[in-house]
Amino acid sequence: MTTTSYLIRSVEAPDGARTDVLVRDGVVAELGSGLSHLGARVVDGDGLLVLPGLVDLHTHLREPGGEGSETVLTGSRAAAAGGYTAVNAMANSSPVADTAGVVEQVQALGDRAGYVTVRPIGAVSQGLAGTHLSEIGAMARSRAAVRVFSDDGHCVSDPLLMRRALEYIKGFGGVLAQHAQEPRLTQGAQMNEGALSAELGLGGWPAVAEEAIIARDVLLADHVGARLHVCHVSTAGSVEVVRWAKSRGIAVTAEVTPHHLLLTEELVSSYDSRYKVNPPLRRQEDVEALRAALADGTVDIVATDHAPHTSEAKCCEWDAAANGMVGLESALSVVHRTMVETGLIGWADVARVMSTAPAVIGQVAGQGRPLAVGEPAELTLYDREVTRTFGLEHLAGKSTNSPYLGERLPGRVEATFHQGYATVLDGSVVDAEAVARSAAEVSARAVLAAGEATDR
Length: 456
Prior knowledge:
By secondary structure, the chain is α/β, with parallel strands linked by helices. Helix content is 33%, strand content 21%. It has one domain (1-456): TIM Barrel (Alpha-Beta Barrel), CATH 3.20.20. It is built from 13 helices and 19 strands. α4 crosses α6 (207-224) and α6 packs parallel to α7. The protein is globular. The two termini are 22 Å apart. The model has no long low-confidence stretch (mean pLDDT 96).
């Protein structure tokens, strides 16, 4: 069995310290200056920042059933290109991930691809229909050991079903991730409700439709004593509800997407369907409130809501176009632009909101760990000095519905290491066969180690 070691020279940690990093047998083996190791592949880290591998709590991989838009393999490649080492795959596949069999299939596909750790998210309700609970217990006990449950794309709007789901998931320490959208208030909605929607003649998606569900659910979570996570918070009012709930000690966490940190509803005036998303792009005032909330900790994490679609689903008239944007490859650059370049947060905070905190919320083992000897080698090397015009060549997934095409974005991921092997090197995604071989070696090594432990 062959194992590649890597010696990363002179990288800068989020706290500003410079160090060499020796990666061997899947872990950080040594830290210090002037390190050497016979046979290790040397990676020049001069001028690069080393972050714990990024963790996305909100990714749509589409497989099974939506392979025309994305597969677990192509979505994993996109994640690696963006510096991610773990993603949590949403349940709205076909069939829906509402049984142990489907979540185990998704995890197995992720393990085989080898680019990132793929953690399936289980559906709250059967078929995402919002009427009967899914096989929550079976998914939690399965080999996938699901700990996050969501009907994302659909709101769990029935308060009794929501209460029962919170009670059930609480029993094994899981978390319910809610897509906060009151369906009766958003029928026919095409964009943010306001003066611009009236001017354009498009159906409005009012902020209160999000805020009312969050308010209801934090009270339910408090009553039950369960953990609630709010997906893609998008309004200033939602921020205030979450802030109030946290001040009361309610166990709620929240995420914001990169696109809600940067883009505003004015872009809808172009009728370019790349900007059609749910929840919709909001006002500049909302963008500013979301940035401030991420900086002060009211919003806990950045999650991409990576939502690939075929060109047929997006390259059509606005009303008929699907909601969603791809975002894995661009997320770190957008956070760099909106949060770091503006002075709102530093790089240690970036590590927290894009790696450590999402790993904790999603209970993703071995991820989001600090750079230290003995820790799993889940690492991202990022060049903060370059600026690029974001183009199709920067997309590593199957779909191209990025809202940033043609935009100038700072930074570039130069390397990503997952389980101690490279998935991105010199800014390019490593060949799928090579990554799969490395993943198989890691798996075989783990089986061998488990056998030796049993023998002892």
